[in-house]
Amino acid sequence: MLYRFHTLCTDPQEKKENILKFYRRLITRGYKPNGLLPLFNDAITRMYQPPPAVPQPNPDANQRPIFFRIQYHPQDPPSATLQQIWRHELFKPPFSKALNEVTSSHRVGTIGISRMITCYSRPPNLENLVSSKRNVTFKNGPTVSSFFDND
Predict the structure, then answer these.
(1) How far is the C-alpha of 98 from the C-alpha of 90, rounded, in Å?
(2) Going by DSSP bridges, is the β-strand pair 113-121/64-71 parallel, antiparallel, or unpaired?
(3) Which residue of 27, 92, 106, 111 is most buried, as measured by CB atoms within 10 A?
(4) pTM higher than 0.70, yes or no?
(5) 114/116 Cα distance (integer angstroms)
(6) Is the CB of residue 114 less than 8 Å from the CB of residue 129?
């Protein structure tokens, strides 16, 4: 609730009034002040501290994935099997360099693909296969209100 007051109220006096009102309501409901004050103080200090720095991933060229997009079908092999085939046949074939160690003739450095991510899409359902779009066209003629009796 304190975070809500902090983000929704722009006026500092209004924030203070709402926090005090909330505190008094909790006291009225039977909460003890010695239990609430540490919680309120901790919440208020955390609101005004800068958020912790999130470590940014290192965009290493050898960590880029390749995406294999396939429409889901229950009879297709599972993703683990596709991963195993990719690793054995494409990423690190027997007696060859790994794919992330191969250099490209068009770029300086290695190709940089180190893993494959299998992305499934759903197959079309009945609504996609049958044209379900409604085409409402208005015909020229009298309006609906002209049919009502104005008496």
Answers:
(1) 8
(2) parallel
(3) 111
(4) no
(5) 7
(6) no
